[in-house]
Design a protein that fits this description.
Elements lengths: L1 H16 L6 H17 L2 H7 E8 L7 E2 L1 H14 E15 L6 E15 L5 E13 L2 E9 L1 H8 L5
Parallel strand pairs: 1-6
Antiparallel strand pairs: 1-2, 3-4, 4-5, 5-6
Length: 160
């Protein structure tokens, strides 16, 4: 009987851990808008969906954590210097609280960015991982992990 009770409790714990956060679906839609920013070069949309209190982890070597101004500067760079941008094969996953591991409404995504440099006409393709946390319908915390340096080297002018 004790084993049955333990199994029942364990089963209940597992089933509860799969409960979706009520804001997850809406936040996936916000994440899709974030992708749209770069696919359409719509920088204004980035300002609309991002909190002025955002804390962002930059993919650029040595930058680390940046606030709103740094995040917007990076967004302007990517929306202004590349075209034909797509994010293919996206995988959307729920974010979790780092301590409790309970879904917190955040969104994690994996996929492949590709596009063309406006300056050189060279193409890039880079695997990427992004995570987002939201507050009041805006991105409040985010991080981008991909080979930003390799991407820039791929589209750099040819050495003569």
């Amino acid at each position: 009987m004790k084993k049955f009770i333990l199994f029942a409790i364990f089963g209940l714990m597992i089933s509860c851990s799969n409960v979706q956060h009520p804001d997850y679906s809406a936040n996936v839609e916000l994440t899709k808008q974030w992708i749209e920013v770069f696919e359409t070069q719509n920088f204004d949309l980035l300002t609309q969906i991002t909190s002025t209190e955002v804390d962002a982890t930059s993919p650029i070597y040595g930058q680390g954590q940046v606030g709103y101004d740094g995040y917007m500067e990076t967004g302007k760079f990517y929306t202004g210097n590349f075209s034909d941008v797509t994010f293919s094969d996206p995988v959307f996953l729920p974010g979790v609280d780092n301590e409790t591991l309970i879904p917190n409404g955040g969104v994690r995504i994996y996929g492949t960015w590709s596009g063309v440099s406006n300056d050189t006409g060279k193409e890039f393709s880079v695997l990427a991982y992004h995570w987002f946390e939201f507050e009041d319908g805006k991105i409040i915390s985010t991080g981008d992990f991909f080979d930003a340096t390799g991407m820039m080297m791929a589209v750099a002018p040819d050495q003569e």
